[in-house]
């Protein structure tokens, strides 16, 4: 008996060990050195076209190769936080600067880029300072801008507006009027991907800024919870409520998503008049409905509110996205070369071609080469003229707040929370 | 379950083996029980992938950890928060509700389909193969598919306004739960159908022949022979449904994301949200432990009250 099981046990262990080794190989290959490559992790969406192109350009001349990895948008942050402190961590990764990388900086995972900048000052000086500073923490630079600036705009279907005798709304009353006209024609006035929750948040970001200016949110983010209960906060919620009750978003917005193309198609097919979305909406429409993007897509700033205290030319959105580098990477020199491409002429032209607006100092030279020069100029002037550019709330707050924030935002829109309930939920968010 | 059978099995075993070229193992005494070594692989895997993680989760539930910074122990803080967290308490109720609804919907369907599939009708094999397809698809693929099919503006609801109204299926608690139950049933009914099909085939034909002689029709045979004979199978199938239903996660993640608001946030999904969205792995572990406890209690209750623990062969008396 004993003699019999021993060889089998040995054989079994060998098989087991083999299996485990193979599995280990599979998991570890991305960071093992043999191939001489580093991983670049980016948020997966229509902008990946440019990231692919830049990586290809880099690989043509570099001995150390860059490998692009894209994570579908909705899961990006989850995946990143899960792997960043493991062997599978990327070498370079996409982020939103500010609050989105603060925990990683605190944990000492990120490489300050100041040495790279000392060697090549253009890595800093070729970007607009206000944007570059979005990824400066404790006086050190942790990110290089790598996409375009993304102000949130009110997009529209030109044909739907024209057919109903409307123009892009300049004021809040214009918008309410447009909502009424479209609703009477049985067109959903404003498409909203409520199922994703973050598109709903954009309405709050603009409404609060229009009614109270950026100081209310800054105070709240700084830990002053009374800001949420101020008269301005109530006024902003009242205005939103007015819009919802007017039927601006239809009745089924909770079942509609932006991320699966639902709300995008609503506007493109003329089933809805407007959609409030970041400037990347243009490249999304270009990918999903190229003809509509070229001829039918209109845009304007968020309407002004006459009784609001905020500066009516303020904007909200994402200042830019950034590439940050992990401290433990084996190829900092190659990565420095890679980062330099983020202000190259090729990069700027490629971003322009898909409707993004890079924040490099040479951007103005190429405004005419954009896919839609008028759209790029409009954005550029808007960003330049805006006294305040509010970073999306869910990026400004710590990651741990975003789920509770999104839930509250959705519940106020579908009527499950009243203004006081919403205010309480916002006061309960962790701020640091 | 096997205690009454095992002596018989052991005595039988050497007989066929003797013919397979294994002389010297003929006497019953020397093969009484297989050595402990045979249990080693299973024990190893169970320890590695079930016991160790469970212990780690239990330890983690007393700590605060965001996955990046160092872990810090916070005593019973997570547990104190847990019992005042209304989303948590609601999630247990939702988990139980969806589980019960899942069992109630799937059991009759799969018994009927299974009994039907066990017969010898024309086209039975072809249709059974088609019914089986959902089981071969991943839960993720199925959820994405149904999410697209149920889109209010471009999916089925837009073509059937008389039934779906404005199509806001994911905007109300009741309809969102309904979608979860429906998709779960669509996915898992084929599996339970298969179980019932096999069990029905195993019912001795003599019982039906005897019943036919006594004048019992098809319906009467179904109620008086098929169903009672399927009793043990029903318990097996229900336990699988309960355990599966309590841990459903992928469908919730893709179809409703726990929404609207927190209206379909079941316990497994809430644990995921706390862990991988809010990065409070300690708190998420505490939620997961609660789920382990609740699911264990329910399984034990089912085993106890169904008599599964002392159930005898269903062919008793034949």
UniProtKB/TrEMBL annotation, chain A:
What domain of life? Bacteria
* Signal sequence segment: 1-23
Which is an annotated Pfam family here?
Answer: SBP_bac_1
Q: Which InterPro entries match?
A: Bact_solute-bd_prot1 (IPR050490), SBP (IPR006059)
Q: Which UniProt keywords apply?
A: Signal
Q: Does the keyword Magnesium apply?
A: no
Question: Under which name does UniProt file this protein?
Answer: Extracellular solute-binding protein
UniProtKB/TrEMBL annotation, chain B:
Looking at the record's lineage, which domain of life comes first? Bacteria
PROSITE patterns per the record? ABC_TM1 (PS50928)
Topology versus the membrane? Multi-pass membrane protein
Can you tell me where the transmembrane regions are?
35-63, 92-117, 129-149, 169-188, 238-259, 279-303
Q: Which SUPFAM superfamilies would you find in this protein's record? A: MetI-like
UniProt signal peptide:
none
Annotated ABC transmembrane type-1 domain residues: 88-302
Q: Where is the composition biased (Low complexity)?
A: 16-30
Keyword annotations from UniProtKB, A to Z: Cell membrane, Membrane, Transmembrane, Transmembrane helix, Transport
Renumbered residue ranges of the record's region Disordered? 1-30
UniProt entry tagged with the keyword Methyltransferase: no
Concerning InterPro entries, the annotation shows: ABC_transporter_permease, MetI-like, MetI-like_sf
Q: Where in the cell is it found?
A: Cell membrane
Into which family does the record put it? Belongs to the binding-protein-dependent transport system permease family.
Q: What is this protein called?
A: Sugar ABC transporter permease
Source organism of this protein record: Actinacidiphila epipremni
